[in-house]
Amino acid sequence: MSVLATTQHTSLATVPAIYRAYQYASFSTPTSELTLRKDVPLTPLEPNQLRIKVHSAALNPADQKIMQDFGLAVTGRQPSAGNPFGMGFDVAGTVIDTGANAHQFKVGDAVFAMAPYSNFGTFAEFVAIDEQFVALKPSNITFEEAASIPYTALTSYQALHEHANLKSGERVLILGGSTSTGMAAIQLARAMGAHVIATARGCQDFLLVQSLGTEKVIDVSKQNWVDAVDEHSVDVVYDCGVERKAWNRDAQTVLKKDSGRFVTINPMLQPRAAKFGAKCIGEIMVHAS
């Protein structure tokens, strides 16, 4: 098998000259266009990049959305046969090579990362990612568990901390507590010192959300969440993509007057202004940092 010698920075380690990766050459559905290529050439690392041998990668709704609907808007690029797109943002693996200016990690480090929109494609044997988007994998979690964290956790962290500015002692209502972003949001909000209410659908999801330490769980298969929350009692409503019309309908009923904030990962269509001054932050797009 042909191999490509790595930089001197990594001593005598070698990696294959070609590798396997899932890619697509046009925007379409995964079943019709996504292909496992077995001849992807390994390109030289940029100065700040790490080459990671992939142990696990995670699938997110964003992967399908970019392939089908929002790819051009998000990336500003169009896939083609000569320049196909990869699939996947989340990854966990082992560093096998480092760029000339990459000094935060060393060969052999177990890491996890979220690839940026300019360079995604973690459904592959190897990925090259700028070290600013990489973190050491905690020793008490598996590679599979680590790969499930970056996109969803960063989405919820940025929604609650950077956009909604959630503070200790405030009350947050998380719509879709059993979704991946919802489960991350519950744990992050609790770590921030907030009081957490979350919705779930059905007994199994109810118990899952309850197990995360949520103070109040609302089973929306039995009642509307707006009927289970006092009017103007919530500081932040965070929609994890399950309530597209939440702001225009019920969120304004439960948000505090003047200081309430609403944030969502859903694209918003014609949001109406709140009569009492609650703030519609609107949809957010996660960034890999």
UniProtKB/TrEMBL annotation:
CDD domains: MDR_like_2
Taxon lineage: Eukaryota, Sar, Stramenopiles, Oomycota, Peronosporomycetes
The Enoyl reductase (ER) domain, residue ranges: 29-286
GO molecular function term, any single one: oxidoreductase activity
Domain of life: Eukaryota
Organism: Phytophthora rubi
Listed PANTHER family: ALCOHOL DEHYDROGENASE RELATED, RETICULON-4-INTERACTING PROTEIN 1, MITOCHONDRIAL
Stored Gene3D superfamilies: Medium-chain alcohol dehydrogenases, catalytic domain, NAD(P)-binding Rossmann-like Domain
Protein name from the UniProt record: Enoyl reductase (ER) domain-containing protein
